[in-house]
Amino acid sequence: MPVIASLRRNRVELAWGLFAAANLVAMGLWPSWETIPFHFVWISLTIVYGFRVWGVRSTAVVLSVVILGTGSLILVDAFEGIQLWGELFEVPLMSAMFLAMVWHARRRLDALRTAERQATEMTSLLARQERFLHDASHELRTPVTIARGHLEVLNRLVEARSAEVTIALDELQRIERIIDRLLLLAKADQPDFVVAEEIDLEAFLEDVFIRWSEVAPRLWRLGPMARGSLTADPEALRIALDALLENAVKYTQDGDAIEVRARELGPDVAIEVADEGSGIAPEAAARIFDRFARGDVARTRTQGGVGLGLAIVDAIAKAHGGSCLLAGNGASPATTFVFRLPRFRASLAASAAEDSAAPAARL
Question: Which residues, other chains included, contact 349 with Cβ-Cβ below 8 Å and sequence gap of 6+?
Answer without folding.
Answer: 227
